[in-house]
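check this one:
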Amino acid sequence: MKNSLVRKSLIEVIKANIGMMLILVIVICGVIVTSLIPPQILKSIIDKNLVPRQYNGLLALAIAYISVLILIGLFDFIKEGILTILGQKITKTIRMKMMEKLEKMNFMYFSVNESGTVVSRFTNDVETINSLFTSGIVGMIIDCFKVLGILLSILSFSTTLGILTLFLLPLIYAITRTFQKRMLKAQIKNRVLEGKVNNHISESLKNIPMIKTFSKESYMEKKYVDYLLDNYKTVEQVNFYDSIFSPIIQIVRAVVIALIVVFSCKQLSLLGISLGMIAASIELISNLFAPIENLGMELQDIQKAVSGIHRVNNFYNEPEDDCKNNCFTSQKILPDRNNLKLSFQDLSFHYVEGVEVLQNISIDINAQEITTFIGRTGVGKSTLFKLILGLLKPSSGSITLNGVDVYSICNSEKRKLFGYVSQDFHMISGTVADQVSLQDENISKEQVKDALEFVGLTDYVLSLENGYDTVIKQDNQFSQGQKQLLAIARAIVTNPPILLLDEITANLDSITEERIVSVLQRASSARTILSISHRLSSILACDKVVILENGRVKNSGTPDELLQRDDWYRTHITLEKLTWD
């Protein structure tokens, strides 16, 4: 049975706020009851004071009328305040539990779901759930009781008028829902088109050099105008429905009030009610339109919230990395970095069932051995690194480090064992030192300084305003080459015995590449290195080359051995040398 995160969070918040929930129930009852009192007071004012012209109790009734209106406002204020507080507590609880879940989730989830989709679970979906409790369900309960109370009040004046009001309810609701549905459809379309407009602006700004280079200004302008016109049409639709809805409701209200007056006149006297009852009935029927209109909006909110609950609960029931709860320490796995063995044992992996990315890979990598993986784009090299890091779980087979399955190693221990350098360096909010330590409290300032010294960035960092404590405000404070050096510093700061290098020189010029390679050659001392490269001739001298093709190991051996027995490798190296020469 699936767990319901929303139900758990709701129960938790209710249990922790029993007193507030009781006050909310009392206030809701107060809102419903007091909203029905003013018409009754108005009836008494007319029938007992104005018609007989007896003004003895008029002041008291006037004060009572005003007092009830103030009380209604007070009850409504308290209700909204409590609902806001409870709604925020529910939102906070749900998001906290979602974040706890996020930390335990399988990396596969992030491979098949875009970051925008995950973010929408935390933002849009949770907000719809919040609106369900702050306005949806509670608002619907209040409005349903208000409609029922108004109907009973009118029935107490006149059975005929009560029956007419009963028939009026479906008409008001049908008009309201028709317009709300059309407005919602137009608003949804407007949001989609507005997103296209914003996206087009963003793409235009980001790709201005390419647009100008290929003389595509007119094309981009035409696309922008088309999106803008489409968006304008949907805005017109929303404004049209919004502008005619209120007059139609006003006309219906005026017709109903006119009919009450006509049916109550002396000549017809179909309703048989007093002047005070007529005034009270007119006020009650006028008050009938607001809750019915609200019911349509609340139903719409509930429908949105139900889909939000479904998506949040699905997120909460995603698979977790349970096996990582019982993990070995890095010291226990690798007491001696000179006695290291990384083994791939009949490893296979697929993202989509039936489509194998890697198949039956078996390799042994020993301590301080430099191994380079090569192959065409899309052959599975980066996926292999994710498997080595224990981010992905093999479909079959395993990868072990000194006999321990890497997938079972705690994430907190992995950084002490593996250093990973990718071709893209992602900055985080914080100082220069934070870029290296990732704000890990177990990493000292001295370790950060040593890592930056090792990659040759100390002089540049010290030239910044606050040295190591300089807050990174702009991504361009470091060049592309310096970012790669920061990435290496981040990888080696914990002095891991294994370094994984994922095409880290792919986007660099030759001079910067030579500097990076020089740093890596020093970093490879007393470390086991696994690298991915398309330019094999320009990377570290390696002990073993593994050629991947169609997800399998096509060939492996020392560079000299492969030059003798593998035509593809020999051609690859020859073409590189000719290109660089």
User: Anything to note?
Assistant: Residues 344 and 470 are 43 Å apart (CA to CA). The radius of gyration is 36 Å. The longest strand covers residues 341-352.
